[in-house]
Amino acid sequence: MGDSNPCSLRSRQRAGGSIPNASCLAAKGGFDYVNQQQLADPLTCLGDGHPGIWQIIRQFNCPGERREILDWFHLVENLHKVGGSLKRLKAAESFLWQGKVDETLALFSPLKAKAA
User: Fold this and answer.
1) Backbone phi, then psi, for 102, in 5-degree steps?
2) Ramachandran region, residue 79 (left: φ > 0; alpha: ψ -120 to 50; beta: rest)
3) Is the whole-model pTM more than 0.70?
C-alpha cells in the first residue's frame, strides 16, 4: 500500500491532519502534492530565517498573500548581530514583542548599516 503523500513519514501531526515538513518537499512530487492542496489566504509561513526555507516556500502556488514570519529565537539572534547598545537592543526586543516594527526600525535608523 503506497501513500500518495510523499511527506507522510516526515509530517508533524496537528489536530485534524498533518503539516508537511518543508525539507521533505524536495522529494519527487513534493511540490506537486502541496500545490494540489487548497492553501490558506493569506498563507502563513514560519521559518528560522535560513534562505533555503524561504526559497522552498516561494515554490508554493499561493493563491494570494503570503506572510513570512521569522521565529522569535532567530529574530532576537539576528537583532543582536545588528548591534547597538544593550539599552537599544532591549528596547527593540520590547517593541518587536508588541508588534511595533516601525518603532523598532526608528531605533536603528541613526546607526550605520551592518548586515545581520
Assistant:
1) -60, -40
2) alpha
3) no
